[in-house]
Amino acid sequence: MPSKKKKNLVLPPKIIDVFNMFESIGLPAWLAGGSLRDLLLGTEPHDWDFASPFPPEETEGLLVRHGVAVFPTGLAHGTLTFRFERASYEITSFRLDGPYEDHRHPTWVQFTSNLQEDLSRRDFTINAMAYSPQGGLQDPFEGQQDLDAKLIRCVGNADQRFREDALRILRGIRLAAQLGFELEPDTAWGMESQAELLKKISQERIRDELDKMLLSEHPDIAFKWLKELELWPYILPEMAACINFDQHSDHHFLDIYDHTMVAVQNTPPKLELRLGALFHDIAKPATFTIDSKGKGHFYGHQDVGVMMAQGAMARLRYSKALQKKVGFLVENHMLHLLDMKDITLKRFISQSPRPVRENLEELFLLQEADLRASANQAGSLAQLQTFVHRCYQILDSDCPLTLRQLAINGRDLEAMGIPPRTRGVLLNQLLDLVLAQPNLNERSRLLKHAEKFHEQLVTAKIIDSSRRL
How far apart are CA 308 and CA 82, in angstroms? Predict the structure, then answer.
């Protein structure tokens, strides 16, 4: 097996301590997988994964006998988690995998003491290396060469690798987006030829890989390959309709898909923001009309987009809270284009989800990203700046924006004998009044208006006066 020392392979002190512990207990373990890949790239791994030539029971016995806490987190596949010096690590026994009948998991595994056999079952060459202080760097599939060339390449036959585990298709694209790499041609071909197997993958797994692509440093790379390999129909069919869709608009120089890609790239890497950018124009193909002058229009696409976004997110098993956040961004991403009166803007801010300032700031970021992916940026950005300034003026003023900021509350209405079901209606009426006239937010004035509003409701027979407490 080729062994080649890499000059920039510097182990952190805590990993040197782990290897010293392994040596002291007679466990010839190796650092392997993504943690070694990241170390070779000069970045701190998020997780540290080790590989053992011993079966899991023997590995566990060695660690436990020397006072190391061990947890059998994946015993069926030979994986143990151990605690050492207040940190957690995983160690997996060398193994061979049986057939992948469900295109996701091997039907059986067989433990081996041969490192190359273990590395040969892995997905990509950059993940199929191993290192130990005694054995040096083992790289039988030239992963270092692919790291230098910035390539994602399958170990062995790409077609077979993706038939074994179809999730590797998305994982490979995700790695390319995270690392700024390209796909090696045979690997890309294998992804495309086995794309149909993505139907076998759970929506939750697809969602997790999509999230990582969106939050990567290069989401545009993911967009490129998901389009070229025609994978969107298996991930987010709604996005496939946006590809090459000419907007026929002076406001846009990109088709809907490329505009969306640039908008995503322009947003900070926060999940709800990048999902908002992903979905903000998702309904444009469904709402497209063209006028007699050949100009395209997408009337109401933001409202239809909310329904489409939340439907897609529900299918992908996103939480309802996140669906609500993204829905708010999609629904209001064009709000800055409206010439709103102060009272209308105050009502919008008042009705925005809590925390108001945080959600509005995310909306501003999405609006800016959207505009920077469009034509005529200067004028539109100036319009957005005015909108943002007006919002901050209202947020920073003493104007009450919520029911809690009113000078009276439900207990005051209860003391007036107003029934429970009516109190919320009256408080919202009073908030509308105060939004228009902030100087009315005084206890005595609001009590008088509450009495007046209540009488109006009784007179209009909207409520029953006999139910007054």
Answer: 44
Say yes or no: 262 and 360 in one domain. Answer: yes
For 268-272, the CB contacts below 8 A with 24+ separation are: 268/365, 269/214, 269/215, 269/216, 269/217, 270/215, 270/362, 271/211, 271/214, 271/215, 271/322, 272/322, 272/325, 272/326, 272/329, 272/362
Same domain, 217 and 245: no
pLDDT digits (tens, 9 = 90+) for 371-409: 999 987 778 899 999 999 999 999 999 889 999 999 999
DSSP state of 352: S
pLDDT digits (tens, 9 = 90+) for 84-137: 999 999 999 999 998 888 888 888 899 999 999 999 999 999 999 999 999 999
Based on the domain organization, do 230 and 158 belong to the same domain? Answer: yes
pLDDT tens-digit readout, 125-144: 999 999 999 999 999 999 99
Is the Cβ–Cβ distance between 167 and 200 less than 8 Å? Answer: no
Q: Are strands 69-74 and 49-52 parallel, antiparallel or unpaired?
A: unpaired
Structural domain range at position 169: 151-234
H/E stretch holding 421 reads: helix 420-436
Residue 31 belongs to domain with CATH number = 3.30.460.10
341 and 275 both lie in a single domain:
yes
DSSP H or E run through 346? helix 342-351
